[in-house]
Amino acid sequence: MTETRLRTLTSFTAYGLCAVFFIALAVQNLRFGFYELFYLSSGLGAVAAFGGAYTLTVRHYQLRARGHLPALALMGLLLVTTAWLQTIETAIFWCLPVLTLAFLVLPLKAALQVSVPLVFLLALQIVTTLPPASALPVVVAMILLMTCAGLSSRHYSHVAQSAEDLAITDPVTGAHNARYLDETLQKEISRARVTGHPVSILMLGIDHHDEVKDLLGSNQIQELYRGLAEHLFSLIRAGDTLYFLGEGRFCLILPFTPEEGARVTSERIRRSIASENWPRVARITVSIGATAQISQETQAERLRQRATDALDEAARRGHDSVWFYTDSRRVA
């Protein structure tokens, strides 16, 4: 299950339970003639039901949805209204599911933006209304609930981020994997079209890869991949991204890099790798295919294919070389 689906399921379930809770309270208040409490609990139930419907509406981009924060803030406002217009005991009872809901639905920072003011205002009302012996346990309980929920939310965010990093990172080299390449390249193309800045892509392959693999064996070739990735990381800029495609092939995306910059970078990488002393093989060489985004180009697949064609051409012409592919022309 993806994080988006997990977030959608969690949020929808939490909203649904809150809606059932507050609607049940509204029915009870109506039954016993507590009309002001009926209106307030109905409002909280309606907001929770709206949150559940909104969760389903934005299920495909749940992680970027911005409607949850206003909904939870409105619920907090209704709770503060309950505390000032009705009994503080009722507000205390009602705030517990809302606090829990905030940390289940919102990111940690946004949840704190909702819960901290809510707890502060309720605590202020509790201290000024209830005797100290009764007020202290209640305030401490709310703070403990908020703290525990915040720690759980922080732990979940950390685990989710770790899982995302593992999903897009090659375990051998530490570079991004091929699965993440097309997604990133499409984003860079879209950004290049909006900003007008160029983007280039390099495909790099180890020359005579099959012979090198036979010489080193499966374990040692992975050490070579790892060492080559570390070497490439030391050569690229902070905004450049490195991808390992398997079978001795790497890809580099160079944002804000025109054709001339891609040529210079390619040649610098080729010379640096050729002059390095590599374990067990002493010397390896690479062929590099390079290309830059053509004006009005929108498809990442075409840009990647041109770079692959350029790499194949560089290898065909004798290895340890760079070949640049631009438009419909191939340029050495």
Automatic annotation (TrEMBL):
InterPro entries: Diguanylate_Cyclase, GGDEF_dom, Nucleotide_cyclase, Rev_trsase/Diguanyl_cyclase. SMART domains: GGDEF (SM00267). The lineage of its organism: Bacteria, Pseudomonadati, Pseudomonadota, Gammaproteobacteria, Pseudomonadales. This is diguanylate cyclase. Keywords: Membrane, Transmembrane, Transmembrane helix. It catalyses: 2 GTP = 3',3'-c-di-GMP + 2 diphosphate. GO terms for molecular function: diguanylate cyclase activity. Residues 197-327 form the GGDEF domain. It comes from Marinobacter daqiaonensis.
